[in-house]
Design a protein that fits this description.
about 375 residues, alpha/beta, Isopropylmalate Dehydrogenase, 2 domains, two-stranded antiparallel sheet, binds 3-isopropylmalic acid, binds magnesium ion
């Protein structure tokens, strides 16, 4: 038996509810196929601010660095609206990403057959959709300096954020996108705003240079970010892998989520560079937020977080067959008509968070029997 250490950070809002179901899935896998999962739970986000006055503590950052993978629920909520920027819930997530150097954020948007009618687009546009958005996660507007709000002294204030990218940041995330494309349909679309931003022009030039040097077997296209938003809702199946910066990736992945039926369906993996032993720091989280409007009711969709654990099996533990089992169990539960409120059609029976977890685990049992 090898032991893998998982740090669970449920966070705020629906985070603890969806993490509860993931814990059951982790327990189910633990001890099978020679791998035991050891879990530890800690605070991040608003709950951490309430307990410690910061959105994540130094100790938790150290635990995250020592873990084989981190699984996060969601952070934030109206309760912390007035809290200072530097310690608000989102700052905890941003610090985890930055301190662990998780520069590559993989956001797959896959439309499950059974949900093609839950999408806001027509079935024929989304049926069979399988795209991967690779979002740069530790640079750009989210972290650029200078930043802040200054008082101009004339009754006016100024808000500043800086979009800044260096060649190595662009090329390391583009490298991840090219590598992924080779295992998929071998196509990368690089997305920026080179028509108005120098950082976008550099982005394009650096991607082209890397492509020429190491990945010329992969088909590469370039698209302006506004056009990409439009193309995602016009004809999403034209894409295979999209690579883009931190801010555009944030927006485009929310757009892509609705193609799959619900924001409650999208998992993500945030990966760092492999060290010399091949060990990679990694954090897995759903793309959705803390959904304060439904928190505490036991009705949230746990699928995005369960699929995020599936990504951990695939990308951190090289357990592709087990990851496929998670994906197939979700697909089978959906095919049997299991629906949480966010993916149910009008009049359809809906399951609670816990019932959806149980339905997926029964499918795992059946598929592995
Ligand atoms: C996401 C979220 C985060 C982001 C927030 C919660 C800081 O929207 O992961 O997409 O903007 O990156
Ligand atoms: Mg977002």
């Amino acid at each position: 038996m090898t032991t893998k250490k998982l740090l669970l950070l449920p966070g705020d809002g629906i985070g603890p509810e969806v993490m509860g179901e993931v814990s059951r899935v982790i327990e189910w896998f633990s001890g099978r196929n020679g791998v035991e999962f050891e879990t530890e739970t800690d605070l991040v986000g608003g709950c951490c601010y309430d307990a410690h006055g910061v959105a994540v503590t130094d100790e938790t950052i150290e635990k995250a660095k020592a873990a084989d993978a981190v699984i996060l629920g969601a952070v934030g909520g109206p309760k912390w609206d007035g809290v200072d920027f530097s310690v608000r819930p989102e700052a905890g997530l941003l610090r985890l990403r930055k301190d662990l150097q998780l520069f590559a954020n993989l956001r797959p948007a896959i439309c499950f057959e059974a949900l093609a009618d839950a999408s806001s687009l027509k079935r024929e546009l989304v049926e069979g959709l399988d795209i991967m958005i690779v979002r740069e996660l530790t640079g750009g507007l989210y972290f650029g300096e200078p930043r802040g709000i200054t008082d101009l002294g004339n009754g006016q204030r100024r808000g500043i954020n800086t979009q800044v990218y260096d060649t190595f940041e662009i090329q390391r995330v583009a490298g991840v996108a090219f590598d992924l494309a080779r295992k998929r349909n071998n196509r990368v679309t690089s997305v920026e705003k080179r028509n108005v931003m120098e950082s976008g022009l550099l982005w394009q030039e650096d991607v082209i240079a890397l492509h020429k040097e190491k990945f010329s077997d992969v088909t590469l296209d370039h698209m302006l970010a506004d056009n990409c938003g439009m193309q995602l809702v016009r004809n999403p199946k034209q894409f295979d892998v999209i690579v883009t910066d931190n801010m555009f990736g944030d927006m485009l992945s929310d757009v892509a989520s609705m193609l799959t039926g619900s924001l409650g369906m999208l998992p993500s993996a945030s990966l760092g560079d492999a060290d010399k032993d091949g060990r990679r720091l990694a954090l897995y989280e759903p793309v959705h937020g803390s959904a304060p409007d439904i928190a505490g009711q036991g009705v949230a969709n746990p699928i995005a977080t369960i699929l995020s654990f599936g990504m951990a099996l695939r990308y951190s533990f090289d357990m592709g067959a087990e990851a496929d089992l998670v994906d197939n169990a979700v697909q089978a539960a959906l095919a049997e008509g299991c629906r949480t409120g966010d993916i149910a059609s009008e009049g359809e029976k809906t399951l609670s968070t816990h019932e959806m977890g149980s339905a997926i685990i029964s499918q795992m049992e059946a598929l592995s029997a």
